[in-house]
């Protein structure tokens, strides 16, 4: 089954963990913007140098650079049978750009899957992860701010995909294997 998917969800919902599991199960590459940035920076590409300029100042990489990196990544051969985008699109402008990229490639998006999670559970998860991994900058205030930014900028994207009939929402709370099974069931519905 080919699958062209967008994975949405708040920080701490388990997107990274589930993206890796789903990509393996579906036989498609998981593509995260963070990985794309790191690969371009390491490879010394022009886009990588531009991204490095912003990130070294602690600034967000502009949409134009992110969009160009995603466009380049989606044009590579290994995505011919599908992909799972994790961390993109993050705002309405990026949704429009992804639409344009996919139209240019002649590829439709199959589904946007949103991993939902109770904000209090997410805060607890992220604080525990910060403690385990020694992330001293991930304080409760920082975590709650990240959730607010998600709610303001990224969460509205789910409504865009819902309006197109392309949104599946899956509860991200519980055992990792159970969440994976719920996600695969939601994705499997597109094959029917």
TrEMBL record:
Record's keyword terms, sorted: ATP-binding, Cytoplasm, Kinase, Nucleotide biosynthesis, Nucleotide-binding, Transferase
Q: Does the keyword Kinase apply?
A: yes
Major enzyme class: transferase
Q: Name one GO molecular function term.
A: ATP binding
InterPro entries, per database record: Adenylat/UMP-CMP_kin, Adenylat_kinase_CS, P-loop_NTPase
Q: Would the keyword Nucleotide-binding be found if you checked this record's keyword annotation? A: yes
Among Gene3D superfamilies, the record links this protein to:
P-loop containing nucleotide triphosphate hydrolases (3.40.50.300)
Gene Ontology cellular-component annotations: cytoplasm
- Per UniProt, where does ATP bind? 12-17, 129, 174
Q: Which reaction does it catalyse?
A: AMP + ATP = 2 ADP
- Give the residue ranges for region: NMP: 32-61
Q: Which Pfam families match?
A: ADK
Domain comment, as recorded: Consists of three domains, a large central CORE domain and two small peripheral domains, NMPbind and LID, which undergo movements during catalysis. The LID domain closes over the site of phosphoryl transfer upon ATP binding. Assembling and dissambling the active center during each catalytic cycle provides an effective means to prevent ATP hydrolysis.
Q: Which family does it belong to?
A: Belongs to the adenylate kinase family.
What's the stated role of this polypeptide? Catalyzes the reversible transfer of the terminal phosphate group between ATP and AMP. Plays an important role in cellular energy homeostasis and in adenine nucleotide metabolism.
* Protein name, UniProt field: Adenylate kinase
Source organism: Cellulomonas chitinilytica
Taxon lineage: Bacteria, Bacillati, Actinomycetota, Actinomycetes, Micrococcales
């Amino acid at each position: 089954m080919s699958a062209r998917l967008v994975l949405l969800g708040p920080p701490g919902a388990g997107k990274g963990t589930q993206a890796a599991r789903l990509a393996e199960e579906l036989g498609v590459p998981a593509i995260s913007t963070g990985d794309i940035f790191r690969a371009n920076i390491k490879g010394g590409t022009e886009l990588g140098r531009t991204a490095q300029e912003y990130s070294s100042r602690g600034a967000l990489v502009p949409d134009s650079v992110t969009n160009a990196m995603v466009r380049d990544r989606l044009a590579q051969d290994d995505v011919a049978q599908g992909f799972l985008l994790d961390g993109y699109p993050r705002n309405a402008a990026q949704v429009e750009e992804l639409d344009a990229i996919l139209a240019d490639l002649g590829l439709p998006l199959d589904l946007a899957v949103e991993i939902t999670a109770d904000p209090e559970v997410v805060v607890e998860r992220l604080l525990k992860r910060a403690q385990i991994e020694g992330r001293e900058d991930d304080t409760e205030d920082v975590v709650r701010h990240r959730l607010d930014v998600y709610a303001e900028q990224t969460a509205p994207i789910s409504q865009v995909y819902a309006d197109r009939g392309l949104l599946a929402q899956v509860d991200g709370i519980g055992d990792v294997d159970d969440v994976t099974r719920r996600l695969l069931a939601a994705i499997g519905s597109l094959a029917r």
